[in-house]
Predict the 3D structure of the following.
Amino acid sequence: MDLFAAMSAFVAVADRQGFAPAARHLGLVPSAVTRQIAALEERLGVRLLQRTTRSVTLTDAGARYLDRARRILAEMQEAEEFAQSDRLSPVGRLVVTAPATFGRLHVAPLMAEFLKRYPEVRGELQLSDRWINLVEEGVDLAIRIGQLPDSGLVARQLGQTRRVVVASPGYLDRAGTPQRPAEILGHDLIRSAGYDAPADWRFEKDGVEERIPIVPRLFTNSADAALCAAEMDGGLTMLLLYQAIEAVRAGRLRMVLEDYEPPPRPIQIVRPAARLLSAKLRAFIEMAVETRDWDFRRVAEKVWASPA
């Protein structure tokens, strides 16, 4: 039995929920796929698929095996691409994840440009603020903002951003502008964070950190929603500058407590250290480094010199 061919057949059947569509995808006859699955089940000593006259579904063992099989096949493809990288342009599936707002604003255009340059690559962009395990979830690259606790990642810095407190001019005219972190407790606050994030805002001055526990008037897990509420005179909100920079430049929001901001956070592109640097990964990283300047520490727009 060709183990890898049998694994490919199993994944195709699971994805297409049937032997006939899997066979068409693989260019085989259905009986050949049936034999491969039977041989795989015999080798493993478990039933992977539950067959009826109308459907094919995964057993519990099949569902567990499917995740591992996908990962093994992806690593095989990656190894082949790496071995051929000296003579081949980037090919295959590239999975990238990024924070929701940053991904929409900045990574989606980068992915579109990359796919336009390399037509043999199939891209998948996952936008989520959830901190995922790249290896377990089959992700090739991630854009992450902040320090990395995971030493199993290789990182390349692409920029920095500040964490700022902002509010609309209308709200500040009505409620006043806080001069010290403790004064935010007298204001309407809009908190944007994950549901398990600490319920305080962090400030820092002269190396001394100050954490202010807050009770928000509005809580949301969406930075875009917090931004919208702040622009509508809803109160103070703490965001990363890249999220609020256009509203600040346009005058719809003002920054406050700038003297108490914590140090800037790095914006990095990361990959698992154990994963081979295939042609598609190398090309995407190089395009990001060469074409992007994700430095969001200053509100003023960059002024580019004209060619002489």
Remarks:
- Residues 188 and 234 are 7 Å apart (CA to CA).
- The two ends are 67 Å apart (CA to CA).
- Confidence is low (pLDDT under 50) at residues 302-308.
